[in-house]
User: What shape does this take?
Amino acid sequence: MSNTQAGTAESSSADVEKRAFREGFKACAPTIPGIFAWGMVAGMAMVKSDLSIAQSLGMTFLVFAGSAQLASLPLMTANVPLGVVFLTALVVNLRFVIFAAALAPHFAHLPWYKRLWHGYFSADVTMGLFPQRFPAETAPHTAGKVGFFNGIGYPNWCTWQAGSVTGILLASQIPQSWGIGFAGTLALLAVAIPLTINMAALAGVAVAGAVAVAAAGLPYRLGLLVAVIVGMMAAMAVDTVLDRNKEAGDE
Assistant: This one.
């Protein structure tokens, strides 16, 4: 291939990725207000859990996992052993192991450091939208995957951090009467509902919600941890049953 042809191919590939980035941003745009509100709730929760502003900022940028942060904060406030805090955050975020396994074939051709970079930006909204554009059966080297992923992941990260930093800096200025926590819950529902795209996801949401209500009285908000585990198990069980039924129907 001549230098001219190589340059044309690279330019065409770059154009595809740019278009895919715009498509990803357009797909995730409706979730941005909800992500901002939920990030704001998480930021306020960190400060009101007696973390300093510096500690709160460090946590939001390093951890970047709202559910794990909210699950671990009551434990940190109660001076629970650090190992328990890490274990709780790990279990709450186990779904990202499933996300990574699902996304891995799409990015296996990238160097390890790029896969690590993209792994940091993986989030619930990413996993909810990316498979709709690139299902599991999509060819590994299909153009536009990286651009589409980044079009979701980068705006999601920026929105979350903007909301979180706002919550951290304004935590002492926002009165409880404003009901920001409730607004954040509604915002999370606005993000979660569009991502409930199949029966397995619906089963996980329904079971996790029911368990969270039933286990609300557990200390240190451990009901959230229990709900996440049971909800994941329910979703995996339904997904397994659906796959078996599909295989039986194909035979």
